[in-house]
Amino acid sequence: MESELRKQILRHIENHGRVDLGELAILLGTDEVAVANEMAEMEKEKIICGYLTLIDWYKAGEELVTALIEVRVTPQRNEGFDRIAERIYKYSEVNSVYLISGAYDLLVTIEGKSLLEISQFVSDKLSPIDEVVGTATHFILKKYKDHGITMGEKSKSERMLVTP
Fold first, then answer.
1. 32 and 90 housed in the same domain
2. Per-residue pLDDT reduced to its tens digit, 23-34
3. pTM of the predicted protein model
């Protein structure tokens, strides 16, 4: 059952993953037990699918390459894109798979240690799938904002000072 408390909890934790249940209860004007029970129920119902910690791996001293791979596929009779999407998301290298509109059908995101590692994934695992008829790989060069969080430091204005 969808309640106003449930909506408020979801809105808050979507932007504040590390949440103290007591503080959240105070913010929402309810008690900690009600919040904890509602969150446990939403986890059980798979409304809350997991918790994400966003890490700037570059600052942590580990360089990872992130790629967005557009995939054009031949949909399967009575299954559409679901079976092929499931086959792709089962690879451990895959972070996410989305059905998209446009020239391609699926958008796959992966991370690897190098451009070569990602290229090998595409050529060795993705491209040989019979239903895959085309791919386009795009590498993330810099993240400015990810999951609503501004990454890195804000750039200083590059405008020159004009003095009279």
1. no
2. 999 989 999 999
3. 0.75
